[in-house]
Design goal:
Layout (H helix, E strand, L loop, with lengths): L6 H15 L4 H7 L7 H24 L5 H24 L6 H19 L5 H23 L8
Helix pairs in contact: 1-3, 1-5, 3-4, 4-5, 4-6
Length: 153
């Protein structure tokens, strides 16, 4: 694995910055949608966990072949998150912080990572990694949508 894998955590940082500071910020957008109370500190704290996980995944993928699958899971989350941002923008006819990096960075980079790794890990592990990524993204969206008072639109 080349040093290109470090683009994954770097892209995550850029996306989180857009979510935090794009427009009025994702926390403000969520609060306007129904009173979700997530402070900037909480938002950044949660995302520091995600950044740490991606850094560990990139580091491990470069050292051991077995640990390439988490990059596929992360790339799957990137693609799903980018599509999610676009879908929410289309449904609400508004800018949702994160949509620009979702469209221009997450979807292309996620697809490239998935494409590059598809033959570098066993097919079963590859499919499981994609399923894990979808489950993680789905669980994250479910948690956000279940927050008290949240409603889109």
């Amino acid at each position: 694995m080349g040093s290109w894998v470090w683009l994954v955590p770097a892209a995550y940082v850029v996306h989180v910055l857009e979510e935090a500071f794009g427009g009025h910020g994702l926390m403000e957008w969520m609060a306007a949608g129904g009173g979700v109370d997530l402070s900037m500190a909480e938002f950044l704290g949660v995302n520091m966990f995600g950044l740490a996980a991606l850094c560990i995944a990139a580091w491990a993928a470069r050292r051991w072949k077995f640990w390439r699958w988490p990059l596929v899971s992360g790339a799957t989350i990137f693609v799903a998150n980018g599509v999610w941002h676009i879908a929410i923008c289309a449904m609400t006819w508004s800018y949702i912080p994160g949509v620009l990096t979702g469209l221009l960075l997450y979807i292309p980079l996620g697809c490239i990572v998935i494409f590059r790794l598809r033959h570098l890990i066993p097919p079963r592990s590859f499919i499981i990694a994609i399923v894990i990524g979808m489950l993680i993204h789905g669980a994250t969206i479910w948690i956000v949508l279940r927050m008290p008072g949240f409603q889109m639109g």
